[in-house]
Structures are given as C-alpha cells and as structure tokens.
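User: Can you predict the 3D structure of MoxR family ATPase? Sequence below.
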Amino acid sequence: MNKLVLDTQKRRVNRQYTQNDHTLIQQGGYISPIPSLWEDILIGVVLQKPILLKGPSGSGKTKLAQSISAYFQQPMQSINCSVDLDAESMLGFKTIIAKEGNTHIEFVEGPVVQAMKNGHILYIDEINMAKPETLPILHSVLDHRRMLTNPFTGEVIHAHEDFTVIAAINEGYVGTSPMNEALKNRFVTFSIPYLTGDQLEKVMTALYPSSTPQMVETFLHIHEDLKKQVLNGLLSEEAASVRSLLDALALAEHMPLERAITYAIAEKLEDKIERDLVMELVVTWVK
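Assistant: Sure. Here are the predicted structure tokens for MoxR family ATPase:
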C-alpha cells in the first residue's frame, strides 16, 4: 500500500469508504462523525506515521482500528496496556519445548515482533495505562528507524514496509498517566469524538434492523440529552458512550427501555446522583 501515489490513494479511500460504509457497519466497523477524519487517518497510515487515537471511552477507537485493518485487509496484533504490561508481553518470551525426546529453548514471538515481521497492524490500546518505564523499548519502532533489537534474542528486526502502529488513549481516566513527550512526539494524533445524528442513526439501524424507527429515535434523543449533561459536568463521559448506547438498544429489543438503559448505562456509573440523573432523562422520553 505504501507504494501507491498518495493523491490517487486519497481519492480511492474517500470513494470506497462512502460506498461501503453500510458493509463496514455490519462488520462492526467505524463511521466517522467528521467527513474528513477517516480519510485523513488513512493518509497517515499510508505515510507510515504511527497513529494515536484520542477520545472518550466508547467513541469507537477500537472499531476505527478494526476498520482500518479490514480496509487494507491487514491482520492486526493487539496489546492491551495495564500497569502489569512488561517487555515479554510485547516482544515475546523464551520457553522450553520437548520434541522427539529432546528439550530445547524456543522464543515465542509477541505481538510487536509478529507485526513488524509480517507487516501487520500493531494496535496498542489504552497506551497511557502502561507504566512510563515500559514503553521506551518501542521508541526505535515508532520513529524513522522502524527497527528493534530484541533484548531476549539479540535479533535486529527491521519492520516490514506495511507495518503500521495505531495506539489509543482515554484521557483523564483513573489509572492513566500523561504520555511522556518523547513517546507522544512519535505519533500523529487524531481526536475521535462520539458519533452523533445521522451517523449514529445509520449505525443503530444497520446493527439492529429489527428496532422500530420510534425506538431508534428515542435512543437518539436520550443520547443527545446525556451528551449535554456530560458537557455541563453533571455526568461522567462514560454516560454518553456509544458502545453503551448500542448495548442498551440491543437489550431494549427484549425488555422495557428503562431496564435496558439501567443495565447498559446507569449501573456503570459509580455516583448514585449520576445514575438517578440518567434515569430521570430517560423518563422524559418514554411514553
């Protein structure tokens, strides 16, 4: 893909995504609330720039990465960051193998090594959940060198030309820490907002075609009210999560709407005042 002429690629990306967005939704894919966002991110991928997706929980960052993987027909290796993430989790580990009566040591390649060698996408989820001292091992992978000296084997790995890095962060969440400048500066950063309006309606009707237009419209109104209260500082960001909204819509096909919202959205909030506010907003739209 990286040998394509960029202008031609740019036109092709825009045309194909517009034509195939319904298919992408059915595959669990991503639709951008900003017309240029999808195209601009793909251009960054073509230019071999590490991509950082920044946005609230449930805004579709993982779905966006999966859609890029589907678009380029490029497998994706994933790292889920936490305080327990270490070099072995990223690069791999040595293990003892018994074969034909003999034992020998083999190295089991981790997601970073596999992605670099095979030209896969490396998706690093919640990168700011990892301990700051864990990630510098990736600095040479993320800059112009695109290489890594594996500390466990001594092997020098030069990335396949199609190797792509996409990372995601939820800013300001418990357990996260600011990315250090050396790491952040290696990425091109895109803010990923929540879906709204027509895009969200398109996703809801594609994923849950048996939902009535009235039910979809009610959920859209509820989501708008939740977003307003998030902006007003009265609700946590997760209250307006599109992921949670879609979970609620799925439940609402089999139970009353109020219970569906309770299980999928309200009960995820730790503050009782916030839970009560969510349900008060719901009541205004339930006839």
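The longest strand covers residues 92-99. The chain has two domains: 6-191, 197-283.
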